Amino acid sequence: MDKFQFIETEKEGGIGLIKLNRPKVLNALNRTMIREIVQILEEFDLDHSIKVMILTGNGRAFAAGADIDEMADKNTMGMELANQFADWDRISLVKKPVIGAVNGFALGGGFELALACDLLFASDNAKFGFPEVNLGVMPGAGGTQRLTKAIGKTKALAYIWSGDMMSAEEASEYGVVNKVVAPELLMEETIRFAERLAEKAPLSIRLIKESVYKALDYSVYEGMQFERKNFYLLFSSEDQKEGMQAFLEKRKPSFKGK
Ligand code: CAA
Fold this sequence. Notes:
The protein contains twelve helices and ten strands. By secondary structure, it is α/β, with parallel strands linked by helices. The strands form two sheets. The protein has a six-stranded mixed beta sheet with strand order 1-2-3-5-7-10, with helices on both faces. A four-stranded mixed beta sheet has the order 4-6-8-9.
């Protein structure tokens, strides 16, 4: 029996692939599905054979939001006591790169999941948006914060207030996605980029992620102090010796992630 009910997973060549798999309901995110996504992200994070993770959706959506069927009868204290978004918070604790490959709708919680990825590749028919205003609610898994940091207050408010969808082209122009490609090339291009990252020194990749995210919360001064300590820290790794020695010997380095 498959370990997971709502996702499919694959491991190949240093890449851990996670596919949301409820295509009939456009990968609407129920609580079990989010828990499964977080569980596999954490497993891959501790798996030495995996260097980079890719998150995508089966069918014509990345994810069309939280599961409205599951959410419709919720009440305030029930969500507070169940700590409704606790699993989501764990996504930002993942240390390795997570690349989202957005293959269609990324709406509501689906957009929030995409924004929780480190990098985004999108097919040219992808659509991003926050339709919560049409349901009498608002984004609850980080949308107001992450979109505002990504595109600025005025654009974020306009999208979140109106519920309008952002095209892949607009998402690219605003820096929400790294690259837009034809749908049939999405996985190929995303995997190719992930493979390039998988060849780099894993500890460098890890500490760069940690340092870049500090830039979102820290002052430049505090961020630079943090960056410097991480820079020094890498000099206690075998890979720093190997990387620099390989350069001097004019050969390709062989990194071990140690
Ligand atoms: N929850 C539950 N079911 C959903 C869903 C969702 N978020 N999104 C789509 N579905 C289901 C539909 O009900 C439909 O099921 P049936 O075939 O059983 O009727 C199936 O997926 C296919 O969807 P449509 O027939 O609606 O497909 P479409 O192409 O006509 O429209 C769409 C696509 C515009 C994305 C439309 O499905 C839609 O508006 N979906 C809801 C999007 C939304 O409001 N998301 C926000 C949810 S709230 C949230 O996410 C809160 C948060 O911050 C955590």
